[in-house]
Write a structure and sequence with these properties.
Belongs to the BlaI transcriptional regulatory family. This protein is mainly alpha-helical and about 120 residues long. The chain is about 60% helix and about 10% strand. The radius of gyration is 19 Å and the shape is elongated.
Length: about 120
């Protein structure tokens, strides 16, 4: 798994769209995709976020003429795992039991959630 710095909400929104695409992708293609989704971004804004994502290690940029083409360096699954591990280590001393206990004690786990977890664990 590649080491990537934590992404902001907007960077994550951009990465989710990039992950849906067949790489590599250009800023022009991303502007069109966001416009289709009702989000009008300026070209400079998207370029700034793409540069940040390259700096954070989430993307690589390859120059093709006057255009940069961007390719993810990390999969969505690997990024989620990295972030989950960060939360687990930072808030729960690396203990999954402590995390689940906090969810249970905070009434965040329904009976259905508990049954699904039991089923999942029994299949492992």
């Amino acid at each position: 798994m590649n080491q990537v710095q934590k992404l902001s909400d907007t960077e994550m929104e951009l990465m989710e769209v990039i992950w849906e695409c067949t790489p590599p992708v250009t800023s022009t293609e991303l502007l069109a995709l966001f416009a289709e989704r009702g989000k009008e971004w300026k070209a400079q804004t998207i370029s700034t976020f793409l540069s940040r994502l390259v700096d954070k290690g989430a993307l690589t940029a390859a120059r093709h003429g006057r255009t940069n083409k961007y390719t993810p360096r990390i999969s969505p699954e690997d990024y989620k795992l990295m972030e989950t591990q960060h939360v687990l280590d930072g808030l729960y001393q690396g203990s999954v039991k402590n995390l689940i206990s906090a969810l249970y004690d905070g009434d965040k786990l329904s009976d259905e959630d508990i049954a699904e977890l039991k089923q999942w664990f029994s299949e492992k």
